[in-house]
Amino acid sequence: MEKNSTISNNKKTNGNTSKKKKVNNQNISKKKNYSNNTPKKKSVSSSKLSKKGTIKPIVTDTLEKKETVINSNVVNAPEDNEPTKEFEIIQKADINHESIKREIKKLGKKKTTKNLKLVSKIAIYFFSVIFLILIFLTGTVLLLEFGPSKNARNLFVNSAMESSAGKFLATLFLSKEEIEEIQKSNSVEAIKDTTNADLIEIDMTKDNLDEIEFVNIKGSTYKGIMVIVHDPSRVTIGVSGPYGPAYSGKTVEDMAKSYNAVVATNGGGFEDSGGMGNGGTPIGIVISDGKLAYGSLNKSYELIGFDYDNKLVVGNMTGGEAINRGVRDALSFGPILIVNGKPARINGTGGGLNPRTAIGQREDGAVLLLVIDGRQANSLGASYEDVMNVLLDYGAINAANLDGGSSSLLYYNGKYINNSSSLVGAREMPTSIIVR
After folding, report:
1. Complete edge-to-edge strand list for the sheet that includes strand 327-332
2. What pLDDT was estimated at residue 304?
3. In the structure, what pLDDT confidence band is assigned to residue 65 with cuts at 50, 70 and 90?
4. Sign of torsion, CA 374 338 273 171?
């Protein structure tokens, strides 16, 4: 084709040729549009010989350029009415692409439907379990409160009423009057006496004065740990800081670290509505280093503390009376279990079964710290009578119950060594018993 074009151009200069070349625009064929996106085709020129031997230039149709974009690739559309194999493949690919998109949408819908069904099944299962648990609890409460065993009823009601968050279990089917009667007939009678410090003779010359003993304790419904601190001067009451609604307490561990303590337990009670208290407001009185930290000098409290001779002081007295008799550190809780070697009188079951913490002192001055686990399968808890009897067995002549339940904790050498019943971890509280 290139050779013929050259000959044609040479003929233009030949004098024998008089006619001018003309381009037959009428023969220009229009390209058929296969698609709005069909690419433009380049023009092609060619020449052929006439019958007389002259060479006539023939210019083929010049097609407008059009581009077809499929999957971001530009291809040329065919010239004639018959699509090229390449174009057919592209059309099929485009159709397949749309089919794939439709299939993906279908799969997405199926996956969404499947996930919704799975979520629905999990929700139904979860609420079914909750429903069954509620039925079981309701049936258990009814059986305990109205079953044949009054002793079981009394233990259950007292156990629930001694807790901050579980009181509603006792009040589901029993009236306020019925609950008060059960509590009164299953209680620890208050002791009117206070500690006689002359009954305690601290021997600071004994060989094991620096020792701290740990003894495992086990009863029919409980297990726990008894700590024996032979040197009472190492024991004090830790405070969390300022008190009141604007403040929060500290955990036993935090207080232990602030006092450089080796051993620590929880101490006195605090406002704990619904089991959600932050430990910032104590119940009763707090005395620290001989000064009133919380409470009143004129109001009477069930007081538990140490005087400047490191002797445990328990009993009912006002804040002013406590400071005047030389109480160095003190807190409030109860009941008082043993005073001057005499145990308290127990009515009925003597309370419910719960986690317990208690403190006592032997005649030789050794301090007893008892922590009992509870609300667990292997340790339901102990009654006040159980606690009192354990302390008597270990020689306590003065002893009192401290805050218990989810607050009961025993800290030793950087960690807790008992099994707390708290579902949220160590609780914040206003006071603790510290062993330096």
Report:
1. 291-294, 286-288, 327-332, 300-307, 312-318
2. 98
3. very low
4. positive
Quick check: is 117 in a domain?
no
Q: Which two tokens stand for residue 418?
A: 């008992």
More confident: 265 or 113: 265
**What range does the domain containing 42 cover?**
2-79
Structural domain includes residue 73:
yes
The mean pLDDT of the chain is: 82
Write down the pLDDT at residue 214.
98
Does some domain include residue 192? no
To 10 degrees, what angle do helices 150-161 and 85-146 make? 120
Mean pLDDT of 424-436: 95
> What does DSSP assign to residue 41?
-
* pLDDT on residue 320: 97
Give the helix ranges, DSSP H, for 147-190. 150-161, 167-171, 176-185
Q: Is residue 346 part of a domain?
A: yes
Whole-angstrom distance, CA of residue 403 vs CA of residue 409: 10
Of 39, 54, 79, the residue that ends a domain is 79
Q: Which residue bears the tokens 């229009």?
A: 30
Chain length of the chain:
436
Query: Looking up tokens 């914040």, which residue turns up?
Result: 428
pLDDT, mean of residues 210-218: 97
Task: Give me the number of domains the chain comprises.
Answer: 2
DSSP-derived letter for residue 328 is: E
CA distances from 92 to 76, 98, 99, 104, 327 (A): 16, 10, 10, 18, 97
**8 Å CB contact between 222 and 380:** yes
Of 57, 79, 101, the residue at which a domain comes to its end is 79
Q: What angle do CA 174, 176, 181 make, to 5 degrees?
A: 90
Give residue-wise pLDDT tens across range 218-277: 999 999 999 999 999 999 999 999 999 999 999 999 999 999 999 999 999 999 987 889
- Are 236 and 363 in the same domain? yes
Is the same domain home to 224 and 365? yes
Rounded alpha-carbon distances, angstroms, from residue 410 to 117, 263, 264, 281:
48, 7, 6, 22
Cis peptide bond N-terminal to 39, omega within 30? no
**C-alpha closest to that of 194 among 85, 63, 325, 98:** 325
pTM for this entry: 0.70
